[in-house]
Amino acid sequence: MEAILAGIAAAAAGLIPILYALITGAILDTATGAYAAWKSGTFDAFFLPTFIKSHVIERIAPIMLVLLAGVAVGGTGGAAGLALITLGGTAATAYLASVVSSVTDNLSSAGDGTKELPDSVEVNGSSPSNFDNPPTP
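The structure assignment produced for this chain is given below.
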């Protein structure tokens, strides 16, 4: 039993670089997003709760839980552990790819001080699509 737990602990320690990569990506995405929002005049000072919710709770934590479950199940042997590790690794790769895309978009839109907002975003109670064209009855 001790050998199994030692193996799981050693394998879980191997996940630390993945956790560092995910957190670094989240911080870069948030920092460049805050910069782009500041340049475009849509900066919200309450970005920290949004960062914690959208990156850490909704993305990083589930990915790490799947990877840890895969390590724990894989420590006892079996295909289930390998499947969970593969699923977690795929999710981590997809998340980092989306972060790279977001950071690139943030940096390109921050250069000229403009960023297109989707129609569903409200700024000061008005939708951007209604600024120039108010709804007609």
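Interim note for the steering committee: The chain is about 70% helix and 0% strand. Residues 79-110 form the longest helix (32 residues).
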